[in-house]
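Z., the sequence and structure:
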Amino acid sequence: MNDALQKAVQEKRAGLLARTFFRIELTPTQERIVKTIAWEEHRRISISAMTRYGKTKCVAIAVALYIMMHPGRKISFIGPQQEQAELLRNYMSELIIECPPLLAIANLEAEGADRLMKEASKKRMTFKNGCEYRIYSAKGEAERLMGHGGDLIIVDEACMVGNEAYTKILRMLGDNPEKSTLVELYNPWSRSGKAYEHTMDPAYLVLRVGWETAVEEGRTTKEFIEEQRKEITPLEFTVLYESQFPTEGNDSVFSLQKIQEAIKSKIDLQSELDSAARILQNPAKVSEGKYNQAKKQAESITRRISCDVADMGLDETVIDTGLKRASIWQQTACRGIAKGDPMSTVSEIMKEVRKPTSAGKTEVLVDCIGIGSGVVSRLKEAIQEEGLKNTTVIPCHFGAKAHDAERYLNKKAEQYMHLRKMLEDGQVRLLDHGRQTQQMMGMQWELSSSGKAKIVNNDQVHDDWPDALVYLTWGDQDRMAFTFL
């Protein structure tokens, strides 16, 4: 590499290097994508762009420069199916043939353009400077990824990769993940996966290229965009041209807009309860009338503690706390804990139960299916042993018959739609928790063969957090309860 090119590398002039090595002119945003990856400016990068903008080819250019600048690196191309990963590989093959310095270090034995292209299109490519890249499929649970690693991991069509497969991809970052780079490329079709979750993670640099940028940079025209706006559905336009995650799909249980409104809600039962508690703790300082009013106010509020108990796979146990008065609800805390034995879960729930409260009563709502049944039994015993007054355990069974069996297939569908209705009516205040919001947006419903609403069971979507929230807001109809008075 001559002095001028060495200087271009030092000054991170990605556009000049792309022109020199690959005869490709980059737009300003494309140049930023290339520079961010090739010079390792960020370790976690999330990229979505208008369809046909050229984001995948930009990433291939970045990888080509990365190989020339960083000897001894391992690069992995991953797609939900092998063909998505092969798209990156195919671009790389073209760049290797096009760029003499890159071709000079590629371990290729063939001669002639066609033979070189064929050999460069192998699943694994090695270079004389110690670099190599491989392509992988993340199909299903991606067991084939186990045992592999890399310094630069690129996931194409990341929204189509399931959560369990994504867990294995993250493990590929190796023993020193702080010095390994993960790049996600996607069209933002679904909020149910890790790609969406990562857009809310401050550790990720999120690069979104909508049609406005593409028009400004000459990648398309306003006339073409307006033509497409008329030809495709609003959801498709949002995803493909605005490069935005849709607020909801036709089969979404929850609306992102309503979730965000609930997060900003002015409902504040906690402040009301705290105010009443201060008066009740100092009766001598207030009139009898004010004391009785505070007592009545506190007794009108119910404290709720809910738990979705982890049972299998990558589930986590989630514990929520909240307050309820009539049809108004406030979520006050939520946390996930590592999956453990039932007794450790009971211990964590009891920590919440023992916290002092001025609320009229406490209700503990727990998933009673599978391993949760043991948790419910032990909670009843613990509450009675400790003599905790006005504390009720309510077993929640999603498979039970719905109160309105004409409309809902089971309790799960009924209670999910109950929460949905409360959100639509502005009766709930939620905490701003990224994992909760992300999993809520992944929940879907459909009509059963008998025409009843049911919640779709999707193995790729985790529902621990929304399940715990549904238990927290569980309706009072037709419930089985245990109360120690």
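The mean pLDDT is 87. The longest helix spans residues 82-98.

Let me know what you think.
H.
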